[in-house]
Amino acid sequence: MNGMTHPRHTRRARRLLWRWHGNPLRRREDVAGAWIALLTWVLILVGGALVWTVTARAAGQEFAGQRADRHAAAAVLLTDAPRGLSPSTDGSETPAQVRWTAPDGTTRTAHTLVPSGLPAGTAVTVWQNGRGALTTEPPGPAEAHTQAALFGGAAALSFAGLAYGTAALARWCLDRRLYERWGREWEVVGPKWDQKTG
């Protein structure tokens, strides 16, 4: 049995590939449908992997740029940061006015999110970009890697959905054309069939 193909596997392969063989029952729509299915899976597998790689790499570079551009800075609260209305909000953040020194040495003030419940005059840490504007803390390397992978996966799934939807629409058009052809053929064959069975 080594080196030989099992007859059951051969029959299964023939059933799967009948649209490409010289079958007298095969129609042009059958061949087109088979090519659409093949190209759809190639697009989903190859194109999806490519989209995932490109998107994940671009997101990773964006996060790396954020880590290079954003830096922590010491700031002082100029106003009280109100505490939450319920104990369940402990550890939450609330907007308050802070003062900090920008990279060019100028003193700046702005509103940003700080831990709630802190009184004015408390030292806090804020994040600023290279121009001295307040921003959010950039994701760390591990978090950035995870987020980049998620962005890549979401882009790949979106691409796969688009490819599948386009193929489904093309297949629907093929089926509609095939049904119309069957209808025309039945208009010719139907009366003859009725005469034979009548």
Number of H- or I-type helical stretches: 3
The best one-word shape is elongated
Helix content: 55-70%
- Count all strands and give the number: 5
| Structural Rg | 32 Å
**Beta fraction:** 15-25%
Overall mean confidence score, pLDDT: 83
Helix and strand succession? HHEEEEEH
As residue ranges, the low-confidence spans are 85-89
Largest sheet: 5 strands, antiparallel
Keywords: Membrane, Transmembrane, Transmembrane helix
Organism: Streptomyces andamanensis
InterPro entries: MT1774/Rv1733c-like
Transmembrane segments: 31-52, 148-174
Textual characterization of the structure:
Keywords: Membrane, Transmembrane, Transmembrane helix. The chain crosses the membrane at residues 31-52, 148-174. It comes from Streptomyces andamanensis. This is Integral membrane protein. By secondary structure, the chain is an alpha+beta fold. It folds into 2 domains: 27-69 and 140-175; 71-137, no CATH class. Helix content is 55%, strand content 17%. It has helices at residues 7-16, 28-69, 141-197, and strands at 71-77, 93-101, 107-115, 123-128, 134-135. A 5-stranded antiparallel sheet has the order 3-2-1-4-5. Helix 2 (28-69) runs antiparallel to helix 3. The two termini are 54 Å apart. Residues 85-89 have low confidence and may be disordered.
